[in-house]
């Protein structure tokens, strides 16, 4: 039994997509790439260093299983035990790996096509804390938070997937964490989800859960709607042993793999930004080669996530100008390689959804988007350089991302938009464009109207209570979380999951009127 | 007698500029242009429409004086009384007008070079209201506000000029408004200033004041540190008669002229963005042709400022994605023409320095900057789509602009930044870059540290009071405005100004301890 009627949803999805591309000013997967922080020759120089790093330095601490596969494919292990990647092998993998694939939603209406240059935005992260909605104070995040954020994201048009953004601190073992994270994401949204699996046992454990939601054994593989986030390296240039095991298991299970290299410039990556970009590219490509060796049809995502250190303190700064540059340059390098990719943006250093948060999110997300990132992760909800999250931010960021995606859509230059006749008619006629047919026609196709941003006059805004954006967002959070309890997992499927897994989230928490919101 | 020792200041300015380019991560006039919303052929199509609009439609309501000059230069007036600009004349003016010039500060240390592609950021606007610092409520803006904002701007590194941002509502006549605005700007900052003169009488009236501050009769013309903001058109395609008189007077006085065409897409410019860009370019070029006819050495600034209407209400939306696109595309067109230019950005629709304001400022300013605008106006301090301003925002925006300018600086790709050896040494050695000489070397040259943005951990921030960015900015506003009273206008000069002009701002208001702050 299918938890979801796939065919009807596909049809609905297609109709929705067609309708939206006809009338909506923005849609998922628009083409970015008009911002090019690096010149062609600069990208080629970076690429030359990437190949040199993989061939002449390599990565340490590969697992025995992956070492055997890699050596069989042409790699070799040097005297220091480092796995070296011949240039030709790396270039072959870049040439033959998947250039695009469908990132499936749980509901096919949320399927998106991941390819270089096609811009999408969504969540990500592993924040250990959340700003409690009611008290406004940071506290440890829980499974229930994961579920609530999923429900919120489910209603946000410009958040194209839900990759778990907080760590469920109310679990006791890695296995319980991974099972409950997967369950909370699955049950709170019908968008594509992702979980960070650091252990192959976790991957193997959740496959039956994913199959059950997909409609039966083997069904998940047909439409893999859960991505494995794999931090397969510990920068600089070292494999993360357990994550490599998880990677191997996830590729074998047919999961899309987010191949994350998260060095920190000045600490675990060079302080010189160009070097940090090159190291990240090399580290991710090392993972991509391994994935392709395991399965040439793998769905690998080139996730160069070099972060920034504030060199005064060593602390991460997610909202800095340097971070915006690193992410944009990495998106451009992924375009150079023509690979489905991900970069981080929107990781404000601010602990509140305030002016600092808005500014830092505004320029980091827009530069990543215009550089053509296929997936912008951490793009909604994050606070405190990924150390926290807040409910209000998902709603606020969704609104901001919409406006940024409108800029990605760009300016249509055509006979129709340039028409001399329209201007002449207005200038020699009424003297204004308010009533012109072109104005009416363009109103819906070219102009995006925000859900939160306040455009009223100062006096109208004062008369309505002079509220700030955060306050307005709180209303929306409360409304959605009070009423939106997705029911795409049928009751019998859910019962089976609860029979077979140690599910912490009470079933009673999953219906309106449970007293929490 | 010079109010300022120019030679010493020039020397200090040059030394400062040299020092800063050596060590500081950002400086005024860095090269933008890596974001190109329009393709080359799209720019050529827009340009073709621009020439067609000027030649085949022209502008109405030119003044008799400018009409006579323009006809003598090759324009003609059609049967409907519209001034038509032959293509060859327009192209000649584009080819021969100044490609760059110095926008002088009152203190030469603040001189900047205005040319296509070299990015600068500063204030602008004509807000009729200000959020009172003490009550937090909007009220009518005054001469004292103009002076206080000038003092604040004087201390903000990333606000490169002070173009008056509010209207002094406590003046009774146009002449008093213009005189007092000029005086308040002049006395509150040593940066370059600008005032919107809508009347030739105002221009002629303030020249003796500008000369007095410059050091004597005829001295202002040698270093014209006050720009005339000229809204010389009433879009669509109509000259603003009185502003054209002011333009003529200002060019004759040697003032830089900000040639502003501020149509509103959907109301006074086409709703189709490409058409709005073309109309703005045509309207500004009409003004630039006239300026060049008056004086081939004029300092004209191509200020295409098409605004956006929210087509549901007709109200302006300064923070929209469409606005970001219009400004970026106009900056790119100015680059196409290779003209010193200005576009607006940072004009949030929000009435508060909140998350909405930050987000809207973040993406509009960064896209304008990366499109290579030479002057980004309204870039600091504005609220409510230019209808208001707030003291806090100047401080907050200055911080945000710094980070954005850091992204404009870009990524250095060189042997030094790419060095394989650094990565190899770290990977085979200590395993981290924290103590590497490259990290220390790059710390000051490549990394910008904000003044307001909070980068502390969540717990450190909580321990320090869990304040938001606006609250932190308030401290800085209060500190600067309580102590920073510039004294570059000597007392005897000021006395002479007060003898000759109806100066509203009391002299007693211009010293610390006056009880206001």
Automatic annotation (TrEMBL), chains A, B:
Its EC number is 2.1.1.-. It is an enzyme of class 2 (transferase). Signal peptide: none annotated. GO terms for molecular function: methyltransferase activity. It comes from the Bacteria. Residues 1-22 are annotated as: Disordered. Pfam families: MTTB. InterPro entries: MttB-like_sf, MTTB_MeTrfase. Keywords: Methyltransferase, Transferase. GO terms for biological process: methanogenesis; methylation. Belongs to the trimethylamine methyltransferase family. This is Methyltransferase. It comes from Ruegeria marina.
